[in-house]
Amino acid sequence: MTQYPRDMTGYGATPPAANWPNGAKIAVQIVLNYEEGGENNILHGDAASEAFLSEITGAQPWPGQRHWNMETIYEYGSRAGFWRVHRMLSDLPITVYGVTSALARAPEQVAAMKASGWEIASHGLKWIEHKDMSEEEERETIAEAIRLHTEVTGEAPRGWYTGRCSNNTVRLAAEVGQFAYVADSYADDLPYWMQFDGRDQLIVPYTMDCNDMRFAIQAGFTSGDQFETYLKDSFDVLYEEGCAGAPKMLSIGLHCRLIGRPGRAAALRRALEHFKSHEGVWFATRLEIAEHWAKENPPMHRTRPSDMDRETFVAEFGGIFEHSPWIAEGAYELEFGQTHDTAAGVHQLLARVFRSAPEDKRLGVLTAHPDLAGKLAEAKRLTAESTAEQASVGLDSLTDEERATLTEMNESYTGKFGFPFIIAVRDNTKASIIEAFRRRIDNDRATEFAEACRQVERIAELRLQEKLGK
After folding, report:
1. DSSP label of 128
2. What is the pLDDT of residues 336-388, one digit of tens each?
3. Residues that are catalytic
4. Cβ-based burial of 235 (10 A; exposed 0-12, middle 13-18, buried ≥19)
C-alpha cells in the first residue's frame, strides 16, 4: 500500500446538515487580517523588507534594508484603514486574524476590537513565511505567538491561521490542543474534522477568492465594483444552495491596508447592504461557527479503509467480488488514502484490479458467481450477500413453474457461454431479470463476457454501498 495523504473527496455529494442557528440559509464570516507591524522588516529582526500584498507592483524584498514605501503602505492600514473598517463593521461579529507582534504594536486598535466584541484569533507571531522553518522552530514560534497573544489581549486565542504556512503547520497547531479551529485550509465551504495522532481538530476553511488580497496581485481586482460583484455573486450562489436545503459558509478576507482604502471600502459597504437585505443570514465569528459545528457535527470515529492493515482490508473486502480475495489483495497494493474511504473509493480500487486482470482471472470471478435460484440457493449454500440479493426480488420463493424456467435458462446460458448468468439483482425485479436473461442469451460470447463483467462490478458497487454507505 502506498498511502496518499490528501483527501480529494471530502463530503462529496451529500455534505452534512449545517443547521445554522434559527434556520439560517447562509453563514457569513468576515475576517479582518491585522498584520501591520508584524511584516518582514529588518527592524523586526528579519533579513529583508516585506514584498507581499501591497500596492507596489512586483515588489521585491530588499536584503538588509528598510523599504520606506512598503513600510508606509502597511502603516496606512494601522493608522487609517483599520479605523475606517472598524466604523463600518463595529456592529457585526468579526474575526480578527491578529499577527501577535503586530497586535503588541497596536494598543488602541486592540482596545477597539475588544470593545466591539470581535474575536481575536492568532495569525502567528510574525507575518512571514513558515515553509522553510524546521519543525522545532515552527513549534516554538507557535508557542511564542500564543504566549504573546495572551499577554497582549488578555485571552489565549481559540482560533489559528498562519497563512504563509508550511506542510507541518496544521498538525503543529492541532498538537497544541487548545484551538477550537484551525483555518489554514481553502478546501471546502463547510468546516470539517481532521485527526492528528489521535487528536480531533476542527478545520474552518478560509478563502483566497473572496479576499481583498486580489487587489494586490496581478491577476486580481483592479476596481471596487469587481470585488463587490464577486462577493454578491458568491453570496447569491451559496444563499440559493441554502434555500435548497444545503446551507454553507461564505468566508470573506479583508486587510486593513487594502480594503481600508476609500474606493474599496465603498464596495464592501455595498456588498454588506446586499447581504443584509436577505432573510436568514447568520453573521458569525469563526469561533461561533466552530462551536456550532462541533455541537451539530461532532467528529465520528470509524475504522477507515485507508487505516486498515492488509489482513483487515482483505478480510473486510475480500468477498465483495464473489469468492475472489485476490482482488482485495491487489487493491491494497495500490496507492490510496482518505479520498478512497468511501464506497466509490474502495470500488474504484477493487475494480481497477479486476479490470486489469487477464481474461482467465476475470472468468474465474464470473464462474464463482452462483446460478440465479439454482441448486446452491436451494441447498442454502450461497454467501450471505448472494442470499440477501436473491431474496430481495423474491428469487428465494419462486413458483415451481418459475423455478423450472430459470433452471432451463441457466443451463442454456452456461452451456453457451461457459459462465453463469450474472445481473445486479438489486437493480431489477424478478420480471426484468427474466427479460434480461432472454435478451442476453442471444449475444455473442465477447459481448456477453463484457456485460457480465460490468454486472459483476455493479454488484460489487452495491455491496460496498450497503457496507460503507453512499
Report:
1. S
2. 999 999 999 999 999 999 999 999 999 999 999 887 765 544 435 456 676 66
3. 369
4. buried
